Amino acid sequence: MHIKSSRLIWIACICLFMISGCSQSNNQSTENTDLFQYKNSFVGDNSAVSHILNGLPLSGSLTSFELATEEEPYGILVSYNSSSVNPTTNEGFTQMVYNTTYLITLVQNVDWVQYNIGDQTLRITREQLNEFYYNDLQNFDSTSSLEGLVSLNISRIFKFKEVIAPN
């Protein structure tokens, strides 16, 4: 029983750390730019996607992005510097889910976001996130409502990680 309570305390501490890290990063980025000005952008709008990515956590580690618009389903390929981002850690995974949440909420026709970090890839789809949040992300129209949704679900993110673990 002592081991179980220790694990729960440890998991709670990690969750609090990630929540504070995500909100600090997000507050810094959205103070300068209201990302919801790009709501209903299209995946083919390079400028809008670039502004969104640069306003999210991990923007300092962004090396490139590519828009996959040749055929449906449309997507965004995002490459990060492997020395500063690790999708297998809880923090790295949480930040990628957070960024994907914003991209899928703001870009109306993006169906997936794939992260390439060194030799690892992580693909998150619109369908997976809508199921995870029990909501259609397209229905969110403000930073505060989306942040509320993310905050309510942050403790469940480890279950989501088990489902779509990076390869």
Kindly describe this structure.
By secondary structure, the protein is of the alpha+beta class. It has one domain. Helices cover 50% and strands 15% of the residues. It is built from six helices and four strands, in the order ααββαββααα. The chain has a four-stranded mixed sheet with strand order 1-2-3-4. The relative contact order is 0.15. The model is unreliable at 15-20 and 22-32 (pLDDT under 50).
Q: Termini distance?
A: 34 Å
Question: What is the total number of structural domains?
Answer: 1
Shape: globular
Strand content: 5-15%
Protein structure class: alpha+beta
Q: What gyration radius follows from the Cα positions, in whole Å?
A: 16 Å
- Percent of residues in helices: 40-55%
Main sheet: strand order = 1-2-3-4
Stretches with pLDDT under 50, minimum 5 residues: 15-20, 22-32
The average pLDDT score comes to: 85
Provide the succession of SSEs.
HHEEHEEHHH
Based on DSSP secondary structure assignment, what is the total number of beta strands?
4
Number of helices: 6
| Largest sheet composition | 4 strands, mixed
Keywords: Signal
Organism: Candidatus Pristimantibacillus lignocellulolyticus
Pfam family, one: DUF4825
InterPro entries: DUF4825
Brief descriptors of the model:
167 residues; alpha+beta; four-stranded mixed β-sheet; 6 helices; 15% strand; globular
